[in-house]
Amino acid sequence: MSSNLKNGQWRVASYPEAEVSRDNFELVYEDVPALEAGGILVRTTALVITPPLRMSIGTGGITGNVLPIGEVMRANGQGVVVATDNPNFAEGDVVTGPLGWQEYVSFGGDQPIPLEKTEARAGLPIEANLHIMGGSGVTAYFGLYDVAKPRIGDVVLVSAAVGTVGALVCQLAKLSGCKVIGIAGNDKKCTWLMDELGIDGAINYKSEDVAARVKELCPKGVDIYFDNVGGEVLDIALDNIAHGARIVLCGATSQYEGDANWYGPSNYFNLVYKEATMQGFYIYSYANRFPEAYQRYGELIAAGKLLYNQDELKGIDTVPDALIRVLSGDNFGTQIVSFGDR
Ligand code: NAP
Predict the structure, then answer these.
(1) Domain boundaries, the chain
(2) What is the arithmetic mean of pLDDT over 81-99?
(3) Could you tell me the distance, in angstroms and rounded to a whole number, from the CA of residue 249 to the centre of ligand 1?
(4) Which of 18, 37, 58, 293 lies at a C-alpha separation of 20 to 30 Å from 254?
(5) Cα 48 off chain centre by
(6) How far apart, in whole angstroms, are the C-alpha atoms of residue 217 and residue 213?
(7) Using one digit for the tens of pLDDT, what is the confidence trace for 175-228?
(8) What is the mean pLDDT of residues 102-128?
(9) Is the C-beta atom of 130 inside 6 A of ligand 1?
(10) CATH superfamily of this structure's domain 135-285+295-299
């Protein structure tokens, strides 16, 4: 690589006490790393910024995944192989995986390279592999079909319903013949859920009384609660479950900024009376079945039956803003940051 190229990198500067800010990161410019023997050098073209990244800079992160101060912040992304000494990768290959908040990454040949070669799926732009045709897409698909197991007529309540996972769950549940109620953080999102996704009800959890609205919209109880946020909304859902309900623990976005002080549900005993289940799942257990979800999404999109949104910021300077946006709900759709030409 030309020696005057610099590699912009966001490193962890401090741990936030509550809400994350740009000051928690420092943008440094270093020389582009060298190609190592047997390795590859990748130029990042896009990152996907998701809520659980907040736990990488927690002081008591529940996953134990906290990054040390000074480390490059993590994220999955896509890039192009710009130099290679590895027979499995050619110059120009598009790759997806853990690239981090940086413009160039060098992967050495002495370790397995944690990237997969990437081709566009179902005719969608290749960055869709960072969301609907990637991790969030399969999370919605298997979380709903395999864990929740929807039946025609079920009442399905979905939190973070305009989020990447949530919006797909809403649409798949609707296509399965369920009554679907979404919870989201502003009126524009609620209107979109009703008007564009055609779901049956929407609740603005920032301006409405969620407990009262769930009772009003789900008078016979909730058969499936697809939980993306945890916290008080999970407790409200537990208070409103129908007999035999299935609560799917997918994520806990409302808690990711809380570090060690997570809100525990107090209404869990309803699971006993209602003979209900509450089950977590981790998407990587379904890895061998991912193609099934991609194929189904491709069919539904081609038939005009499925929508997805991508919210894009541009340039290395904006990456912390992207994380702030997903944690404040300012994004509308999957939050991508694109870097230069794709
Ligand atoms: P996402 O829902 O697109 O996340 C962004 C949205 O979360 C924001 O737009 C915001 O929407 C909402 N949000 C932010 N802070 C919130 C808060 N304090 N309370 C309630 N909502 C809040 O994220 P995603 O990538 O689709 O992931 C959804 C969940 O699935 C995440 O919790 C993630 O960790 C989890 N996940 C789990 C697995 C698994 O294997 N189990 C895999 C992937 C993802 P509003 O405007 O509506 O607040």
Answers:
(1) 6-130+309-338, 135-285+295-299
(2) 97
(3) 12
(4) 293
(5) 8
(6) 6
(7) 999 999 999 999 999 999 999 999 999 999 999 999 999 999 999 999 999 999
(8) 93
(9) no
(10) NAD(P)-binding Rossmann-like Domain (3.40.50.720)
8 lines ligand 1 (CB under 6 A): no
The DSSP line for 179-235 is EEEEEESSHHHHHHHHHTS--SEEEETTTS-HHHHHHHH-TT-EEEEEESS-HHHHH
pLDDT in tens, 140-170: 999 999 999 999 999 999 999 999 999 999 9
6-130+309-338, CATH topology level: Quinone Oxidoreductase; Chain A, domain 1 (3.90.180)
Percentage of the chain beyond pLDDT 90 is 90
Any ligand 1 atom below 6 A from CB of 166: yes
DSSP state of 268: G
CA-based torsion, 26, 28, 32, 34: positive or negative? negative
For the CA atoms of 187, 173, 278, 232, the dihedral, rounded to the nearest 10 degrees, stands at 0
- pTM as predicted: 0.96
C-alpha count within 13 angstroms, C-beta hemisphere, residue 331: 27
- Measured by CA distance, the residue closest to atom 2 of ligand 1 is 163
How does DSSP classify residue 316? G
Please name the residue that has the structure tokens 């399965």. 176
Q: Which residue puts its alpha carbon closest to atom 35 of ligand 1?
A: 251
Give the separation between CA 168 and CA 154, rounded to whole angstroms.
17
With beta carbons less than 8 A apart as the criterion, state whether 104 and 9 touch: no
SS (H, E, C) 31-68: ECCCCCCCCEEEEEEEEEECHHHHHHHCCCCCCCCCCC
Among 50, 190, 290, residue to substitute to test ligand 1 (most atoms within 8 Å of Cβ): 50
| Residue 268 token pair | 């869990």
Question: Which residues, other chains included, contact 222 with Cβ-Cβ below 8 Å and sequence gap of 6+?
Answer: 155, 156, 157, 214, 237, 240, 241, 242, 245
- Token readout for 81 is 């192989």
Q: How confident is the model at residue 342 (pLDDT cuts 50, 70, 90)?
A: very low
